[in-house]
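I am writing to request your help with a piece of structural work I have in hand. What I wish to show you is a protein chain and, alongside it, a tokenised description of its three-dimensional fold. Could you please explain, in whatever detail you think fit, how the structure tokens follow from the sequence? You will find the record immediately after this paragraph.
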Amino acid sequence: IMFHSTLALSLLLIAVSSNLAMAIKKEKRAPQTLSRGWGDEITWVQTYEEGLYQAKKSNKPLMVIHHLEDCQYCQALKKAFAESEEIQEMAQNNFVMLNLMHETTDKNLSPDGQYVPRIMFIDPSLTVRADITGRYSNRLYTYEPQDIPFLIENMKKALRLIQTEL
């Protein structure tokens, strides 16, 4: 009987520890995969729907980055974005963050076309802010690496709008 209970306990411990190991591994890996290089310290939501829900719940704006892996402009922007301490800190603390490599069904997220990179803001009332644009009239929501200060201003603008409007 002693042997059976020891065996059962050992099996139980093995099961628990392997589940725990998997949970720990999952915990470590998730942000890495969802960040796709935009910032591993940032908590990223997985879907647009989840982003909208979190924005409403947390009363933070949702920042949506559309990009593609093989787009050199996206890669350059991603590098500048990830290297900007100010952006990383605001993204971690004040925004719900989503980066997508596919289009959503929400037409409001492509008011002037489905180009990449494209960064848009949605406020906690779930309004897509078509009034927060970049510097280029032909692609209103695109940013280039040298536009990082401008993107920082737009992030601050998105935060100010919440305080004044909602």
